[in-house]
Write a structure and sequence with these properties.
2 domains, 23 strands, 397 residues, five-stranded mixed sheet, Methyltransferase, Cobalt-precorrin-4 Transmethylase, Domain 2, elongated
């Protein structure tokens, strides 16, 4: 992929002139079209086939309103559009409903050439949730890019695409497991008691291995510091500073740190809360305070927004872990008696990591999304489900 085209933001006619002056050849990452019509079924299908070919490859740009000769841009041929908002909504609707699995990592830009005349840029990011197919009415096709344009994927190519996606997910699982081991061994960015019970949230954009490691630099003006905070402290105080790995937010506790959230330059988020609780001095029973569930539900949507703001894309994989909690009991409130929990048991295992879930778009009901993960943790203590949730499966506000 041409690095200049991949990283360039085309926002003005001067940017388009640079593209034409450079004689940027069509290929794997760029295509030029003099027109864009989306009225007939055949026009919509062709549009979707073009888009899917980039999505299933390394991403790229389609420019509408630029003439070309043998793949080389020659001059602008702006498209007449009376209402850009309506036209953009039409493009958006076709892409969101005509691609399976659903895909949203695209950007539509209208570059004004004169009154009601525009160059349209459709920027499409590489997908890690594919392969994707264009689906319109009874037509379903898989495409990818080649040096000569789009080509339809065959059986062997499809199998290879699925294997590539599975390999990436295995790499993320291994990375998460290794990181949990490092935390237990004291490799943490903040002065938290790593031998105590810790709740850990890990978030990985699926495109993490292609992520631009310099993305955090664009937020050195201080705007990122105002967005990142420790789990559950949105209205409270988090102390923040840049470190070697990215940006760290910490919440102080007696003699150290009670919780931290690390945003890595790679796009990974790691949020950790110390969650042990001593009910009283006259008991030997050790408890885990599961209030971390409320903290995660409060903060997760903001964490998603931070990742998208710094350049990550959906899908985003996440899981939760409870470590160093073997022999502890779950604790709910001050009036609770251990004997209320008939059949409850001490937590078994010092390294409890839940399954991963993948989020493909901005989530609506975060508590519903997370419930299966929280239930897994409660299962380890002998409970059928998280008792923080009500009977309808919702976490009370």
């Amino acid at each position: 992929m041409n690095e200049w085209v991949r990283t360039k933001e085309f926002r003005s006619l001067e940017d388009i002139d640079l593209l034409i002056d450079a004689k940027m050849q069509e290929g794997l990452d760029v295509e030029y079209k003099s027109e864009l019509h989306l009225n007939s079924d055949s026009e919509k299908k062709e549009f979707l086939y073009d888009a899917v070919s980039f999505i299933n490859s390394d991403g790229g740009h389609i420019f509408f309103g630029i003439d070309e000769s043998k793949g080389v841009p020659t001059n602008i041929n702006p498209i007449h559009i009376d209402d850009t908002d309506t036209f953009k909504a039409k493009i958006d609707q076709i892409l969101r409903t005509g691609i399976e699995p659903r895909y949203s990592a695209f950007e539509i830009t209208f570059i004004s050439a004169s009154e009601n005349k525009f160059i349209i840029e459709l920027a499409l990011n590489k997908s890690y949730h594919g392969p994707h197919r264009a689906s319109y009415q009874s037509h379903h096709r898989f495409y990818q890019r080649s040096s000569i344009g789009k080509v339809e994927l065959g059986i062997l190519e499809l199998k290879q695409k699925f294997l590539e996606m599975n390999l990436i997910r295995d790499q993320i699982k291994n990375k998460a497991k290794k990181r949990i081991e490092e935390i237990r061994n004291g490799s943490v960015p903040a002065h938290i008691e790593h031998t105590k019970p810790l709740f850990v949230l890990q978030m990985f954009p699926i495109d993490i291995f292609d992520f631009n490691a310099n993305k955090l630099k664009q937020y050195k003006d201080g705007s990122l510091e105002t967005k990142l905070y420790v789990l559950g402290t949105k209205q409270g105080v988090s102390f923040k500073r840049y470190n070697f790995d990215g940006l760290l937010a910490q919440y102080p506790d007696e003699g150290g740190v009670g919780a931290y959230t690390q945003l890595y330059r790679s796009g990974q988020i790691e949020a950790v809360i110390r969650c042990d609780y001593q009910k009283s001095e006259d008991t030997t029973e050790k408890f885990i305070n599961p209030r971390y569930e409320f903290a995660v539900v409060e903060s997760l949507s903001d964490y998603f927004k931070i990742l998208i703001d710094i350049g990550a894309n959906y899908p985003i994989a996440l899981n939760v872990s409870l470590i160093n909690a073997s022999s502890y009991f779950m604790y709910l409130n001050e009036t609770q008696s251990f004997y209320q929990f008939q059949g409850s048991k001490q937590i078994q295992g010092n390294e409890l990591a839940t399954d991963f879930i993948e989020i493909t778009d901005e989530p609506e009901n975060v508590d519903v999304l997370l419930k299966p993960l929280f239930d897994q943790i409660w299962n380890s203590a002998g409970f059928e489900r998280s008792l923080n949730y009500d009977n309808s499966g919702r976490l009370p506000q």
